[in-house]
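Recap from last week: sequence in, structure out.
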Amino acid sequence: MPRSVALHWFYGYPDVARRKEGWNLLRTLSKGSVRPWVCAGDFNEILEQHEKQGALPRPQWQIKDFRDCLDDCGLQDIGFEGAMFTWCNHREEPNLDRVCSDTKWANLFPRAKVSHVAASCSDHSALLVALDGELTRSPPRTKQRFRFEAVWVFSRACADIIKQTWDSIQAPSYQGLLNKIRTTRLHLKQWDRESFENIRRQSQKLHERICHLKEGAITPSSKAEVESLRNSLERLVVSEELLWKQRAKALWLAEGDRNTGFFHAKANEHRLNKEIKKIRNEDGIEVGDKEGIQRVILHYFRSIFGGIHPTEDDMEMVLGSQLFPLSVTSELNHFLKHKKRGKKGYVSLKVDVSKAYDRVEWSFLEKVFGRLGFNHHFVSLIMSCVSSVSFSFLLNGEQFGFLRSDRGLRQGDPLSPYLFLLCAEAFCGMIRNKERNEIIQGIAVSRSVPRVSHLLFADDTLIFCRATPEAMLCLKRILTLYEQGSGLKINLKKSVMVVSSNVEGDLPRELAGTLGVEVTSKHDKYLGLPTVAGRSKRDLFESIKDRVWRKVNIWVAKKLSQAGHAVLLKTVLQTIPIYTMSCFRFPDLFLNELESLMASFFWNCGHESKIHWKSWAFLCRHKKEGGLGFRRLRECNLALLAKQAWRIAMKTEGVVHSVLSLQWKVGDGCDISIIGHPWILRPETFQPICKPFSLPADAKVSSLITADHEWNTELIRAEFSSTDADCILEIPLRVGGSRNILVWHFEKDDMFSVCSAYRAACRLWYEASSTTQTRPSSFIWRAKVQPKVALFAWHCAADALPTVVNLRRRGVRMDDGCCVCFYPNNVIHVLRRCSFGRLVFACSDLPWKSLDCSCVSVEDWFSKVFGELGS
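Predicted C-alpha cells:
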C-alpha cells in the first residue's frame, strides 16, 4: 500500500473565458506525481445537463471541455450522497463542487463516500469525504449463499464428488431430492475451501519457487520442475480469472483477453453498488442497523404482496364491458401541441401505475381468463404457476426472511407480460364502453382516421379524450373501479396531463384538479422516447451521448486492452442508440460527435490521448475489406428507419413510402406508373432514364404487356432507349398476371432485413466517397489466437503502427532510421528485416526459415505467416 497520496484543492475560474487555463493546470498537475491522486473543490462546471436546474442550459462545449480535462487527467467523479445541487444564487442551482480521483486512489479507498452537507451561512454546500463509507471499520463478514463456481467444471474432482454424493443417497421422494441437493452443496463447499480458497496465495508461492530455481544452478531436473511449476501456475491464473469473471457479471464480454484486473475491479464495483448501509422506513426515518433494515424490507414487501381480495362486485364492474385485442396506433401529442383553433379541446393523460406487476390480484386474473373463454384446465395450470411464489431476501450477501405472496406477477418471468396485458385489456374494455356511450371521445387527427382514446404498452398508459369536466369525472370513476377490482394502484402524484393549445383560462387547472394530477406542457417520455420533437432534435438526443460518455469513462473500461475496447464498443456502446434510431432521424452533426467519442475510446487505451492511426470510416469497413466491422451510425439509422417504412408499405392499405429502395415486382402492371414508380432493375433510382417517346404521362406498365402476359418487345424498343429497354425486358413477370407487390431488390428472396438495408446504405456511401478498397485480410480473424494478438496483426496489416515513417507522416519530428539498425523504419522492416525483429521470431516456435521470404507488402507476409500457423 502506498505511504502517501496526492491531494489537491481546486477552484475553477468563474470567468468562462479563463476556464481553460484551469483545465490546463489540472493536466499539468496530473503529470507531476505518480502517487494516488484525489482532487476536490469548486470546479465551477457541470458534467451533465441534469446537474443543473434553473436559468438557461449550460453550453455543450463547456461541458465537453470539462469532460476532456478529466479524461486527459485520468480523473473521475466518485459520486455523492445528499442534496443534488451544491450552489445556489436564487436563480439557478448547479452541482459545481465535487471530488475526483484517479484509478490508484479509487482502488486504495474503494468504499469512499462523499456527502453534500448544507451550510447555513454559505451559498455552497460542504463536501464531507468518508474514506471507508461511514468513518467506521468495515462491516463483519457474513454468511454467503452457496453459488456454483464456473472454475469447478474444469476439475474432474467436481464431477466425481457430485456423482458419489448423488449415488450414496437412495430416496426417490421429493424430500430425498432435497436431501441430495443439500448434501452435494455441503461437499462441494468443503472441497472448494480445500482447493480454491487461496488461489492468489498459491500463485505467489509458485512464482517465488520458479524465481528461486532460476537463480540457482540449471540442471535437467530443475528445468523439468520449472516447466511443471509453470503449467501449474498457468492453471491457477486461468482459475483466478474465471473466479473474478463470474463475479464481475460483465455479460457483454463473452470472449476477450485474459484480464483478471478488469474482472476484479468490475466485481468490486458490483459489490459496492449493491451494498445497503441505510434505508428509510415508511415514516421517512433512516434506519442503519442490520435488524432494523431487515424489518423495514419485510414490512415493505408484505404490504406489496399481501392481497386486498377484491369482491365479486368490484371485479364484475371492471369486467362488465366487452374485451377486444389491443391495437397499436401512432403518437398523438403533436396534434395536441398544434391544435390552436376550434371549440373542442383535448387532453392527454399519462397514467403511472405503482408497482404494476407486484399488485395484480390473482382472483382478478383468474376472472379475466374466464371472461376471455380460456379452457378451465389451462387456467388452473397457469394459476398454479402464478400462485406458487415465495420470497427470501439478500441483505449485503446474507439471506434472511421468508414471505409467501398472495398476489403479483413475478418480474423476469416470460409469461408475466402477457398476463399483465390480459388484465390491462379489462381497463381498455371499460374505456371502449364509455366511448360507445359517447361519454369519452378520443382524438382523430383528421376526418379519415379513427379516433384514438388510449395507448398501452405493458404498464405505460396514455389516455386521450375531450377536455370537459364530464370526461374527467368519467375517467376518475374508471380509474377508481379499476384499482378496486384489479388491486393495482394508480400513482396520481406521478401522473401528468397535457392539454391542447386551444384550452385556455382556468379550465386546465380545474380538469387536473378533478383527477388529482398536475398539468404540464408535454410528456417527457413514453416508452423511453420523447413524445414531441421540434425542428432541432439535437437536445433530445444529448442524453444518448451522455450515456455513451458515462460508459467509456468508468474505471473498469480503462483496465481493458484495445481488444477489450473493441468488444465493449461493438456489444454495448453501439447498441445504446439503436432503439431511438428506429424512430428518429439523427442529425449528421450529432452522429459525427457520437462516432468521434467512440473512436477516441477505441484508440485511447488509458487516460492519455493517442494518435488515431486509421479513420473511423476505415474501422467501420467489413473485416473482409480490412476494417474491424464497427457500424456506421448514419447508415444504421437509415436502415432502422427503412424497416419502419417497409412495415408501412407492406400493409394491406397499400401505403407506400419511397425510402432507400422499395421497388415494385411486376404482376399485371395495372397499379404501376411507368414514370414515378420504382419498377426497373436499376439500383438507386429504379426508374427509366428517359421518358417514353409517345406514351401518355400517366401510362401504366400494363400497357407494355401483351394479352399473353409477355413483354411487348416491339413497343418497348420503340418507346425507350436501348439501355432502358434491356432493363425492362430482363424483369420477370409474375405467373398468371397476379397483383403487383413491393420487393426488396438487394436480396434474392425479395425480403427486407435491417442487415441488408445497412449493407446497401454502406455500398452507396462507398461509391459516393470513392474510397479505395483494401485487400481482404480475413485470414487474421480466422486464426486461433487471442483477440489481442489478432488485433495486433490487424494493426500491422493496416499499417496502423507508430513506426518512424508513420510518425513523420503525421508531423512528428524525428530521425527516419530504425533505432537498432538505422534502416528506414516501416511496418515490414520492424517485423521482418530488422535484426531485433528477426531475433524475436527466431526465439519463437514459428517456422522462421519459411517465413524469411522476400514479401514486399505486410499483408502478403502475414498471409504466409497465418498460412504456416494454420498448417
